[in-house]
# Entry
Amino acid sequence: MEEILVAPSVLSADFTRLADELGDVSSADLVHFDVMDGHFVPNLTFGLDVLRAVKSATDLPVDVHLMISNPDEMVEKYLDAGADVVSFHYEATAHAHRLVSLIRDRGARASVAINPATPVCLLEPILEDLDMVLVMTVNPGFGGQSFIESSPRKVRRLRRMCDEHGVHPLIEVDGGISSATAAAVTSAGARVLVAGSAVFGTADRAAAIADIRRAGLAGASKTA
Ligand code: DX5
Ligand code: ZN
# Structure
């Protein structure tokens, strides 16, 4: 059976009790950490100090999603602060290949994120160098938005492109993922499910994680 990884997004947690919130999601596979700079996206979140605090409060690997205009300048700082996986946006750099190499040379997993309007074919030249591709299923910037319904088609196109090249980066999806939308993206090929409001917006976080994982597995068993 294929594995489905669930990554709760700290963006929807209660920041006044972050350590407790992280404890509540210990049954997840990754912690998703959304860095927004108020420039690449119209919202501002947290940065290096909060990442260090999150790292000290969880044993899970931390998946850092950089929604920032200057990843070339900042990636090394996030690696120094303990990022285990780094996703930078394709739209924010002219040097995606260089950044991927830098992340991997430092022993972290390298991932490229693409906005809803960015076609998957742009990743073809660097596909073999990626550990993961993050397909945004909402326009980045805020938690709690509605899943873009055409997203599974895009995920399927990416998976087919990977198959054609004989490479298998993980496909992560982010935005509007819940037990209601998980199967549609996993049946298309996604294997890492980011969920913010669907996990932290419920009282029983372990149950929410289990529900999303179950729905994702059901979809993955129908991958076509
Ligand atoms: C949005 C962020 C997401 C966000 C997802 O720009 O990248 O990670 O936290 O939140 P939900 O799951 O509520 O859509
Ligand atoms: Zn994110």
Summary: The helical segments are 18-24, 48-57, 71-80, 96-105, 151-165, 182-188, 197-200, 205-220. The domain at 5-220 is CATH 3.20.20.70 (TIM Barrel).
